[in-house]
């Protein structure tokens, strides 16, 4: 059998040894994408959270996703849904029930991060929410999500937003 030289360690290779492995940010982005899909499934089907999580673990490759973060999002949004929807409501022109389900799931995920994951900068939360809406939402859904999150961030992270605007 002929060996593939490209798989061997080469000390003169300038690439780091972990080249090709996803970064923490890439793994978190993948976790958010999977969590958006899982939240959407929960919203539409109403299946149990544990069933959905188990199904996602079987059906998806978590090699490139942050599994603990996926779990935290899924269970965090569910556990704090009342607080999340209450935080979103003043930033909306529609009721929660009138919102597109995909965009609602994206905004709930983002609101959870703003409320409960202060280790994630608010600008990252907004950007990730916009990107999720571009991928999964309606044609201009990302614009709506952007507008809502731009209103929500100063309400939930006032000091951080003020500090950034200096």
TrEMBL record:
UniProt cross-references to InterPro entries, sorted A to Z: NusB-like_sf, NusB_fam, NusB_RsmB_TIM44
Compositionally biased intervals (Basic and acidic residues): 1-25
Keyword RNA-binding: yes
UniProt entry keywords in alphabetical sequence: RNA-binding, Transcription, Transcription antitermination, Transcription regulation
Gene Ontology biological process terms in this record: DNA-templated transcription termination; transcription antitermination
Occurrences of domain NusB/RsmB/TIM44 (ranges): 30-153
Pfam families: NusB (PF01029)
CC annotations in GO: cytosol
The protein's name in its UniProt record: Transcription antitermination protein NusB
Native species: Pseudomonas palleroniana
Gene that this polypeptide is encoded by: nusB
